[in-house]
Amino acid sequence: MKLSIKLLSATAICAGTTAGAVDLEVMHWWTSGGEAAAVSKLAEAWDGTGNKWVDGAIAGGGDTARPIMVSRIIGGDPPAAFQFNHGRQAEELIEAGLLLDLTDVAEAEGWKDLVNPPSLLDACTIDGKIYCAPVNIHSWQWMWLSNAAYEKAGVQVPTNWEEFTGSAQALRDADIVPLAVGGQSWQEKGAFDVMALALAGKDAWLAVNQDKSTDAVMGPEFTRVFEEFGAARELAKGLNVQDWNQATAAVINGTAGAQIMGDWAQGEFAIAGQVAGTDYSCLPGLGEVALLDTGGDAFYFPVNDDPEITAAQKELAALMLSPDVQVSFNSAKGSLPVRGDVNLTTVNDCTQKGLDLLAEGALAPALTTLLSPDTVTQLNDLVTEFWSMPAMTAADLQLQFADIIGAAD
Questions:
Q1: Which of 56, 62, 148, 206 has its Cα between 20 and 30 A from that of 87?
Q2: Is there a shared CATH topology between the 8-138+296-352 domain and the 142-293+371-406 domain?
Q3: Domain locations in the chain as residue ranges
């Protein structure tokens, strides 16, 4: 085994990093074209240290991948690292003592001074200890629009949600589905959450998701959200796809007018060779309330009994937040870097909008930091039930939503 110590200040992390080249299995759910291009940047960086990235990609998104990852960990066959969204998803694993404490890595690398916004690192912290390495800022708060679809329909590309709904009939007349939504609960609930923040506003949104106020759920701001979500259900009829990137592809090829999806969709536009502002347009906050919810992805590292593996895990954690890796990975992913001291040298119009909002502090917390996984699952199931059952009214959805929020932990 040859020495593998080619890493920034990571040598200070654990008395000399790894003793030799180490294979680390890394589990994640990045399987679309754009996502695969991004994760390859992490793999190339790790392999470049003389170690080996063993890719453990799981198709089907987080809802499919997370139970598999957890089963591996509690079953005694953990990967070396795994991707979750930073937030409350790993709480039970941490409480069970199954995840590696990365506090020494964070202190050696100065993460508290570098990670921006600080809430990303806070989401990795329990009882003063840091258990994950945040790698990007992803925001759900985007609508992506096909310029070609609107040109075919003979109407201007919308600049807000009201104009979008107003353009729907022109799109239908041109045999274009107005809104692309894949057939998975996280996509349907994700679209609802974007609409909630954009149409109800930040104060009402926080009252519901942070304060767990049933009065806010039943208030006029959220009543509008439920009604508009009912309209969105109608606007999505006619496109039968499952995966989110298939819905993005419908926008790319102009068979759908728009998609509500996080900024990771930009990876798909990039792979297709499309140019922001020319081939597609973007509306942060649906053009209504331009905020970024500062969620994203983080890597956790299960505890193991091999000190060489532990040293390699900490080395990988440090590498993921190194400046060069932050730039290469996030440029491919369509996300923003978590380090406040790096700049993406060339960015497109949509990424620049995100950077401007970040600089302005136009931010909201990610729902994964406000709601427990159990509450998220209940809400996902409810929204999916509504989406698939035309007989269920917006008022029915609102009442049941209030019940879940009222009992949320």
A1: 56
A2: yes
A3: 8-138+296-352, 142-293+371-406
Task: Please report, as a single letter, which amino acid is at residue 224.
Answer: R
> What is the model's pLDDT at position 346?
72
- Contact in structure between 237 and 177 (CB atoms under 8 Å): yes
pLDDT in tens, 325-353: 999 999 888 888 999 898 777 778 998 89
3-state secondary structure of 321: coil
User: What is the greatest pairwise CA distance in the chain?
Assistant: 67
- Closest alpha carbon to 334 in 270, 276, 267, 274: 267
Q: How confident is the model at residue 359, as a pLDDT?
A: 87
| Overall fold of domain 8-138+296-352 | D-Maltodextrin-Binding Protein; domain 2 (3.40.190)
| Angstrom distance (rounded) from CA 352 to CA 336 | 10
pLDDT of 369 strictly over 90: no
State yes or no: pLDDT of 6 exceeds 60: no
Burial of 292 (0-12, 13-18, 19+ CB in 10 A): buried
The secondary structure of the chain in percent helix, strand, coil, rounded to multiples of 5, reads 50, 15, 35
Say whether pLDDT at 5 is over 80.
no
20: CB partners within 8 A, 6+ apart:
1, 2, 3, 4, 308
Stated pTM of the model? 0.81
Close Cβ partners of 62 (under 8 Å, ≥ 6 residues apart): 29, 84, 85, 186
> What are the pLDDT digits (tens) for 65-108?
999 999 999 999 999 999 998 767 888 999 999 999 999 999 99
Which CATH fold would you assign to the domain 142-293+371-406? D-Maltodextrin-Binding Protein; domain 2 (3.40.190)
